[in-house]
Structures are given as C-alpha cells and as structure tokens.
Amino acid sequence: MEFSELIKTSRIENVTLCQPFKKSLVGILCVSGHHIMILQEEHEGNQFILLHSAVDSVEKKLSGSRGTLLLKCKNFCIIQLEIPGTEELQNVAESIEKLSNIDNLSLSYPFYHRPRFEVMEDGWQAFLLETEVTRMIGSASDDWRLSNVNKNYTICASYPPTVIVPKSVDDEVLCQSAEFRQHNRFPVLSYYHKHSGNVIMRSSQPMTGPNGKRCRADEQLLNSSLGKSGRGFIIDTRQVSHAKNAQARGGGVEPDVNYSMWKRIHQPIERRQYLHESLIKLIEACIDPSMNSDKWLSRLESSNWLANVKDVLTCACFVAQCVDKDNYSILVHGSEGLDSTLQVTSLSQMILDHDCRTVRGFEALIEREWLQMGHPFQSRCAKSAFAFTKQKFEAPVFLLFLDCVWQIWQQFPCSFEFNEDFLLMLSEHAYSSPYGTFLCNNEQERQKFKLSSRTTSLWSYINIPEVIGNYINPLYQPHQAVLWPSVAPQSLCLWSGLFLRFQVDPSPQSDAWDEITKVKEQEKQLVSKASRLRRQLYLLEKEAIDTEVLLPAVPCFTNIPEMTPQ
Questions:
Q1: pLDDT tens for residues 521-537?
Q2: 138: which residues sit within 8 A by CB, 6+ positions away?
Q3: What is the pLDDT of residues 404-455, one digit of tens each?
Q4: Residue 82 has what DSSP assignment?
C-alpha cells in the first residue's frame, strides 16, 4: 500500500490552526504519510507538526463555504483547523482518519524516522537483563541464576528469552510450571531486596480449574524462591468473586493445602476492561467548560479514576511493607500477569529502592518490568479517551501507573531525580512516538520486526545530555530511605499536569519551576565560590604564618570543610 492512495488532498492554503494557550497560526496545511503540518513560508520558525498516530479521533463542523476540523489527540489535546472549502475539509478529514488508523505496523513512523542527533548510547542495549542482573541481586548470585529456558520464545511468547529464577530449580521444573500458568507465565524474579533477602516474584494465575489441578513443579519453584524467613504472601490483584469465576473457567488460585508456606491475600485492583471507561468519564469531565464546582466534584468521583489510583498504590505499599518490615517474600499475579501485576511490582520497587527514583533507574524499571515482561503496549495504547470505537484490548494501564508515580512524586518532591515533564513525556511516547521503544506487544514481536536495527530507541534520545537536562528535578536530594506514601483520600489528587494541561494554563507553574531551577543554580554557584574563597583564605593565612607575618598562635583554618549545595 502506498500512502499516496490515502491522501486525497495533500496541500491547502490559508488554514488557521488554533491550539490551547498558543497564538493562532495561519499557513499552508500539508498532509504527508505520517504527519500533519502547518507551514508559514515567511516565518520558517513558525510551524506545526503532528504525527497521525497521535490523533485519537477526527470531527468535522461545516459552516457555509468553510469548515472546522477538530483533531482530538491521545494526549487529551484538542486541535482546531479552520479550512476554506468544504470539499477540502472532507478530503483532509478522511485522509487523517485513514492514516491515523493504519494497522500495518511496518508502516509506522518509527521505521521511517532518522534521528538528527548523534546516537551516543544504543538504548536497545542499555538495559539488557544480562547486564542488569548483577546490580539487581548483588551478593545473592549463589541463590539465583539466569535461565535461557525461553530461548526462541518456545515456552512463553510474552516473556523475554532470559529470566531470573532460583538456582536450585532446573529448567525442566520451569517448563512444567509454565504449563500450569496462564499463557505459560511461570513465576520469575522481579526484585531482590538486598537488606532483608526477601523477593518479589510475578506470574499469571495458576490453571487449577474446577477440579483443583495440582503442579508439584510450580510448588517447588515458589518454595525455592522464599528468602531466609521461609514464608511468603501470594498477592492476588483480583476480587475473590472474580478469582472463583476464573477457576470455573479453568483458571483459579493456589490451594492453601499445596502452598503451605504461602498465604494468599486478595488486594483487588480494577480490571483493565473498566479502566478505559474510567478514563473516558474523567476526560469528559475535564473538557466540559459548563460545570460548576459541585458538578465537577461529582463527575470526578463517578469516574472512579482516583479510586483506581488508590487501589494500585494501596497494593504496592502493602507489598513493600511485607518485604521491608514484615520479612515476607511476595508473589504477585492477577489473571494474565500483564497489567495490574506489573503496576504493583513496579511501584513497590519505586517505594523500596532509591535507584528506581533516578532517571536511569526509572528507565531500567520500565524496560525490565513493562517492556521485557510483555506488557502489550501496541494493544493497550492503540486508542485513548476520544476514540469513537472501543477496541477489545485497549486500556490505560501504563497511564495509571504513571499517575501513581506522580502521586508519590508530589508527596516526596525532593526524592526523585526526574521532574513531572519526564512522566508527561513518557505518557505521550507510549501512545505516539517517532521512536520504536513502545512498539509491539512483547520482545518476540520486537525481534520479529527487528526494531533494534530498524528503529531508534527512545532512551538513545532522552539520555543525550542536552535533552535529559530538561527532565532533571532541581529539588532532588539523593537518599536511600524507603518512601511510605499516604493513600488517604486527602493525600491523593487529580494529576492536573496531565489531565488539565490543555484546560488550565500551565505557564504559571512552569515559570515557578524555572525560577526554582534558577535559584538552585545560583545557590550551587555561590557554594562553589564560597568554597574557593575559604580555600584562598586558608592558603593566605598559611603563607602569612610561614613568612612570620602572623604568629602560629593566631587562629587559622586548619581543616577546610567541604560545602555542598543543599
């Protein structure tokens, strides 16, 4: 298929572009195979470029010989194009609708994008499990090993080729356990807590079925993963009734009698099927300009979005508490182990491990817990809140995770190396990106489409010094303490930087952060200058004593304390 077949009108003059909190732009509308562009010939710097993949839906409004095209984007921005000529409007609308809904992955823009920057680090190789394992398990290498049991993806299609498992368990046990778990997602290591020796494992539900099927290999695998305490919790993210219904259909839970060293606890998190409806209700409330305060609060509550945030954070905090304070190892699973499971394991690591709160550590967390472990980004992020049709597998699971991260970030603003813009940037790239990082549903598909050689990694771009500087938190103060976020209703709030940034002017807050950055930079310069002056004073006094200008009894600086910015 050629892109030209889908473009009925590629160029229209005198088109007016209207965006929230920006001046209108009048220029030439150009429609290419991957982009919508507004260009001004007399002002080369004034131009607008939008990927077709960023468009969630297209609406047309006709008025006489002119018309308005509304592009509702996946990042919740609504862009207005005023186009002269109804025929041109119809042609452009039809072209954008088709180009924004192409199913052929090979025609996606990341395969055509050629970066204009020098790739200093290959993001595809930056966070390989083989290189991360030493940092993850530290001195516990005698108890854990890398297994290539899933080489060529023969055991589990959604797992990476290499996983971390107990050293005492051979690959045959892993294969038998995989047959007992939905989609063959057998228990593997997610996180090793170096302080306590406890672990967080993840998997899918066991296929016990109505007859109570048993798998001794699965029991052996789980028991072998227990830390020194010899006890663990199985955290099931489903409601008890949903777990029972799943058992009637062939799924189920781990029977207490067979998993005697484990206790099962249900920490319900809303199923992904309902998250999309929750997001739609939230965005509809956010973009409605006619609401008063009471109606706004009512619709915010009825969307259940903050309730979903609370449920995920509550579960993650419980897992972190079990590992850090109560001396338990943890297995987390829901049904498939692709959504709520990854939310919980990721957030619990962020609470426990200070490294996950750095820029690079957070990138590694996303790579390790989400991309390598098979969260289906291509399916989940196919559409957003404005889509006319609801696809079966779409759900804002990753977006909910980022919201939970922001909730912790705003409670502990000095504990994260990255700023809010970093999270916003990730939310946009997950849905539409010139880079290949979030393409496909798992590692097997990424290898099939040869993404590492045919596309550029998002991490290669972000980690360029002049780019990453835009995402550094000026208030960051490194520390290794565990964070214990509050999940009380009074502590959770709507992430206005994401959901209201096109309704409420973000420039005042942006200006405030710019001022904070400027003050911190000035502080750093003053501390450096003070250190130099103290050093000079010390040397002058030493020289004066050596030349007998000052007597040794005169007090002098014998120890020069180092000053560091706070």
A1: 898 899 999 999 999 98
A2: 192, 194
A3: 999 999 999 999 999 999 999 999 999 999 999 999 999 999 999 999 999 9
A4: E
Name the CA dihedral angle for 524, 529, 530, 536, rounded to a multiple of 10 degrees: 150
Beta-sheet pairing, 25-31 with 11-18:
antiparallel
Q: What is the DSSP string of 104-163?
A: -GGGSGGGT---SS--SS-GGGTT-HHHHHHHHHGGGGGTEEEE-TTGGGSS-TTS-S-E
- In 3D space, the residue among 9, 204, 202 whose CA is nearest the CA of residue 99 turns out to be 9
How far from each other are the two terminal CA atoms of the chain, in whole angstroms? 58
DSSP 502: T
H or E stretch at 83: strand 78-84
Query: pLDDT for 301-348, tens place per residue?
Result: 999 999 999 999 999 999 999 999 999 999 999 999 999 999 999 999
Give the tokens for residue 142. 């005698």
Residues 6+ apart with CB under 8 A from 500: 286, 494
- By three-state DSSP, how is residue 234 classified? strand
Strands (DSSP E) along 193-237, which ranges? 199-202, 232-236
| The one-letter amino acid at 108 | S
Show the tokens assigned to 558: 């014998």
